[in-house]
Amino acid sequence: MKNRLVLSAIASALLLAGCGDAETNIVELDPIEVPEDDHDHDGHDHDDDHDSDYDIESEGRLVVADAASNTLTVFDLDDNSVLDTFSATFDGSSVSASADYRFAVINSRANGLTEFLDGGLWREDHVEHLHDYEEAPSLSGFTLEGSQPTHVVTHDGQLAVFYDGNADTSMPAAVKVVTDTQIASEITAVPTLEFTVNMHGVAEPRGDMLISTVRRDDAESRSANPILPDSVAVYHWHDGEYEEEQRFDGECADLHGAAQNEIAVAFGCSDGVLILNENDEVFTSAFIDNIDGLGDLRIGTMYGHEHAEAFIGIASQHGGGSAILANVSPVTSTMSVIDWQPETDAHAVSYGFSMGGELFVILDDKGFVTLLEAHEEDGDTHWEFSHKIDVASASAANLAEGQSFSMAASQHEEALFVVDPVAQAILAVDLETETTETLLELDFEPAGAVWLGIAEEHEHDDHDH
């Protein structure tokens, strides 16, 4: 399950609050010894045997944040043991997963620092075979720095950090793009796109392209709040730099929120959603007006998955409150309200896609997980209510001010990990059987969790591409 997410979406991030030190308990893991390739290549098909020499079967690892400190604890999901604990440099950092789920991305916007915690499980493509590795988790020496890193987006093996910049210190906005391999090798020349002015923007990495917000001169901008851009540009990586190839000026007032799938990139605007449809790296724009069902709200958060044609837009009041979910179709350029059938007075607190993108998951403050499923009708895709699972309703009434449920999605199986700060526990939710069990009982109050490991490969029907 993709958490971007990425969820292309940033709702998957968790917060570390407070400060303080914690004792470090290390469980040292020896690196996995891989047998030499001594197969007899005699023309017979040895693919299954050959691949098994390099495969690691693991449930992955879970990084859990302590609400009372800046401590991160790494659990081995194969036996639920503690592998190690680490401390982020700053409290209040957001934590999410890197593009290929090897690293926890620890981002401190206020201090302009992004750190990386190596979960110790990863896969490399050696052309002849895929090669898995398993080592002890460690805090990487690689960091990214810049002015107010705000939106961290992952897609198809790449991570993009958008730096808002700061008008008071004359720091312009910028975007930095890295892969897990580059993080591991501690690359020094990080691919970077630099602007000339600050903005609260977002960028979507897409192969050699980077689709980013652009802030025009305030006198030209259609945005009511000029710090929010109203334009989008397509950049292509050429000879060590990003070069602008297309510009869509003034087509998305007060832009906030972005997502992408295989066929398009979507941006939330004050009056609708801007869709950039791709055909062989050339984009054309379409605009979907807001519908009456949104009332006075606008879509400010977008979710997309490479195997789901329709986007999901979230319209809510700034700072939270009741949300309206909208199905946004780039195929038919239409928008419709999704009836996710929440409990009375329930407010969504976390969103994300399941491992293969077949389900969209909503966690609310009443302790329920709601599953939406994509259905095809008349050549178009619609997200519709599927099931609801009572995960932590027993704890909901006892949530204190500042406490919240949160979740992380496994990329190894159809499972969620729900963080219950009241019970001080991590709950495992099986999305196939729709059952819940207490996976980890903690001796600290958890603030959130991130899954790391080797993602399961998936195959999808043609209509999903």
Overall tally of structural domains: 1
What name is given to the CATH topology?
Answer: Methylamine Dehydrogenase, Chain H
Q: What is the CATH C-level name?
A: Mainly Beta
CATH architecture: 7 Propeller
Structural class: mainly beta
Topology, number of strands: 36
Count of DSSP-assigned helices: 3
How confident overall, as mean pLDDT? Answer: 89
Shape: globular
| Spans where pLDDT lies below 50 across 5 or more residues | 1-50, 460-465
The portion of residues forming beta strands comes to over 45%
Straight-line N-to-C gap: 17 Å
Reading side by side through the largest sheet, how are the strands ordered? 2-6-7-8-11
Task: Using the CA coordinates, give the radius of gyration.
Answer: 22 Å
Task: Please outline the major beta sheet.
Answer: 5 strands, antiparallel
Please outline what is shown here:
By secondary structure, the protein is mostly beta strands.
